[in-house]
Amino acid sequence: MASGFLGLIRKLVRKGNLKVTLADGETHVIGDGSGKPVAVRFADEEAERMIRRDPTLKLGEMYMDGRFILEEGDIYDFLETVKQNTIDEIFDIPMAALLIGRIAIQQVKSRVPINRNKRNVAHHYDLSERLFELFLDEDWQYSCAYFDPPGISLEEAQVAKKRHIAAKLLLKPEHRVLEIGSGWGGMAMYLAEAYPGLDVTGITLSEEQLKISRDRVIGRGLSDKVRFELQDYRTMIGRKFDRIVSVGMFEHVGIGHYGQFFRKVREFLADDGVMLLHSIARPKPSLGTNAFIEKYIFPQGYVPSIAETLPFIEKNGLLIRDVEVLPLHYAYTLRHWRERFVANKAAAVALYDERFFRMWEFYLAGSEIGFRWDELFIMQIQISKNQFATPQTRNYIAENEAALKAFEATRRPLQKVIL
Known about the structure:
The chain is an alpha/beta fold. Helix content is 47%, strand content 17%. The chain has helices at residues 4-12, 45-53, 55-64, 75-83, 93-111, 117-125, 129-133, 154-169, 186-194, 207-220, 258-268, 291-297, 306-315, 329-343, 345-351, 354-373, 395-410; strands at 17-21, 27-30, 37-42, 68-72, 176-180, 199-204, 226-230, 241-247, 269-281, 319-327, 377-384. The longest helix is centred in the C-terminal third of the chain and has 20 residues, at 354-373. It is elongated, with a radius of gyration of 23 Å. Mean pLDDT is 90; it is low at 90-107.
């Protein structure tokens, strides 16, 4: 007997080459036979029912539990087969009600005035450092790379990302720089070495990232130029900076706290200062986060649209000086990460277990789908307090990047962290 899930898949998949084996042993071939063959199997009927009722959460959970099994192709191939048939989601009434309920809960959580930021950060970023070394580049850049020119390696693209951001900051050696969400320290160290004389402060809520960042700064001989602090931007007071940079952190602020975030930016930023905000963005508001990502990967995170972000910048008396959209660059980044992670499966399983490995594989594959098929992108917003803080044309970006390339040619090579 065909399951409800089979009916859903038949409705969605008209193009493609998908073979579905149900828990009772029935096998059905779905699609027009085009493209890469993908074969999936259900281990039990309950898994079929659960996915049918709540696919955004239960598909990932059943894959994690080994109850939704890929027999040909991988989880990315399956997700792409489904997604490329329908960019617009198809919901029945029960699924729509479930989605509305989740959005309401997420909206309430995002506005609760309780500081859960440190707990949420620890959920993801305080995992074993060995895990991240399995798939990140040598500088531990855990944000979107910049593939300019196309086809360069992940390492080259991550350097290009740092170069592109630094060029927009219009840095001078005497500047004091704040990095909000400093990760494992790579951006701060790049800036300090590219512009000798800079004073750089990075703040983070991850104790693991803090420890590694401080060790790396000592190893690079930058202790007198770069410092990292375990600090929430919301409670930091009495400090001014000429430049502020934030890369891949804004996604964790939460839609209910955007006003507070940019109020603090205004407080920290010097009158002639410049900020560069680099964040994932979506083409239009969604009000909620994917249920699997919310539960297992980034609790209380939210990816905004540009339209959701700009009003809070304007309301806090800040000027938008430049907005750039980087499409598909994160899809390429995630593909590199996923391929490296899967290639190191044995090491990942040894660190945690098979279920954890499948959870992260699903997260990386699903995220790549988001950038390839759901039109997610990276926004880079340059912000100042006055219109004279930045040039009248964008020519300076290419000029600064050329100078930074010359610096990179003489920079001491990064040492791969040995853990």
